[in-house]
Amino acid sequence: MDTLIDIFANTQAALYEGVMQPIAFALGLGNRLEDVFNGTGWLLVGLIQIAVMLVVIGPLQRWRPVEAVIDARAIRTDVIYTLIHRLGLFRVALFLWVDPLLDTLMGELSGQGVGTFHLESIWPGVTDGPWVSLLIYLVVFDFVNYWLHRAQHQWNWWWALHALHHSQRQMTQWTDNRNHLLDDLLGAVIWVLVAQLIGIAPTQFVAVVAITQLFENFQHANLSVSFGKWGERVWVSPRFHRLHHAIGLGHETAQGTKIVLGGHNFGVLLPWWDVMFKTANFDVRFEPTGIRDQVEQGVDYGKGFWSQQRMGIKRLIYALGFSSAR
After folding, report:
1. pLDDT given for residue 197 in this prediction
2. Whole-model pTM over 0.85
3. Residue 207 within any structural domain of the chain
4. Distances (CA, A) of 30 to 21, 24, 34, 124
5. Closest by alpha carbon to 251, among 116, 160, 143, 187?
6. Is residue 326 situated within a structural domain?
């Protein structure tokens, strides 16, 4: 772990000094160099993730695809979402506008006597090893992700935003970041708040985010892969997550003759939470993906990035009751 951290830190420093720092000065951001340095780290993580996607997950999709590619434009739009997130543009917005607000909030809480809780201090000696603490943090944040994901599917106003993610009929490794920007912002704020409250070290937080995102790319891949009866209950597979995106199954629950928001397979890394809270579906099948109203009513969720963002805002306004027409 120490060796990997050193390699990453040295590469980050070289990229910062050789590329990002001169750009920052040229743009008049000399007073934000610490944020630029942190952003360089996220940029490096994103470049590594994209490399793994192209070199590992991409060939796997071509080897065992679930379905033929028939809508290349939809996939190209998803690539735009991925580049926005993994090359740091979304992170820059967080640094400039959200982080200062969160720092102020945490300062106010600290002034009220609410201090940071250090999760690792619960098991002194056991969590001293970086790998052990990393695994613990992965489990903790995955638990947070499970309930965050369920909220996206239970609350009408949040589903109005999250529906964009489920509207992709042509799922690939690029689909993970196909989200409304407000949806991503809410999730990012919750993650940062949890990170602050449990006292995770910045390097560990970066590692948890990077690992989670990369496996999400794998789970969204157009890949006909199941981990078997027992493996499916240990780690989320592309088959398990594809059922979450399945039309009429992944985001809907039957209550008698009524269909309501809900669904199955909310786990991001671990299916344990779905088993524990009875939302798991382990059927061995690969279903078409999308939303029922796309198929039955021809509802349009947008073809390009800007139309998808605009329609998401319109759905949100309607869900909040500020408009009588979609």
Report:
1. 85
2. yes
3. yes
4. 8, 6, 9, 41
5. 160
6. no
* Distant-in-sequence, close-in-space partners of 300: CB < 8 Å, separation ≥ 6: 311
Helix or strand or coil: residue 254? strand
* Residue in 84, 181, 198, 189 with CA at minimum distance from that of residue 139: 198
Domain that holds residue 313: 2-319
Q: What residue has token string 């809410």?
A: 186
Of 17, 155, 190, 15, give the one whose Cα is nearest residue 87.
15
Q: Tens digits of per-residue pLDDT, 43-71?
A: 999 999 999 999 999 999 999 999 999 99
Domain-embedded: residue 225: yes
Distance of CA 109 to the CA centre of its chain: 27
Note whether residue 324 is domain-resident: no
Q: Please give the backbone phi and psi of residue 128, each rounded to the nearest 5 degrees, phi first.
A: -65, -30
Contacting residues for 306 by C-beta, under 8 A, at least 6 apart: none
